[in-house]
Specification:
The protein is globular. Helix content is 39%, strand content 14%. It is of the alpha/beta class and 140 residues long. The protein starts with 9 loop residues before the first strand and ends in an 8-residue tail after the last helix. The longest helix has 13 residues.
Length: 140
């Protein structure tokens, strides 16, 4: 289980096809005082987005990964995850979030060894479980 240090900033890795859920989750996290590095709001049009993603991965101290069939097919989600798995600052601070049942082990053979947060039952229950990792109570 990850230590309960409050995040300085959470990197949110997600496939573009899951953008609506990602945006909704970002709103909940920020509403509960959790800063989130998120591509839609943190990367402006003319910037080199891959450089910005790299900077966010280095800046953030937690890595959250939204898992879905879209994520399994995403080359960028896989790249972000593989980078995070190699970084000491993400040790015990990677949180896979299951949005939909999928073959997430295709992203990394290590994913099944990491405790996951289940959003398949309901969005609110998933948010409650995710925030509980940091000792934050969920207020819908």
């Amino acid at each position: 289980m990850p230590d309960v240090a409050l995040p300085r900033e959470v990197f949110l890795s997600h496939a573009s096809g899951d953008g609506d859920v990602a945006t909704r989750l970002v709103e909940v996290l920020r509403g509960h005082g959790v800063p989130v590095g998120y591509s839609v709001s943190n990367i402006r049009g003319a910037q080199q987005w891959h450089d910005e993603i790299g900077a966010a991965l280095n800046r953030c101290d937690w890595f959250t990964l939204l898992l879905s069939p879209n994520a399994v097919k995403s080359m960028w989600v896989k790249r972000e995850l593989l980078f995070a798995l190699q970084q000491n600052h993400f040790a015990n601070r990677i949180i896979p979030v299951v949005l939909e049942h999928c073959q997430y082990e295709k992203l990394s053979w290590t994913l099944p060894t990491i405790q996951m947060v289940d959003f398949t039952r309901s969005f609110d229950e998933g948010c409650r479980d995710l925030l509980r990792i940091w000792g934050i109570g969920f207020v819908p």
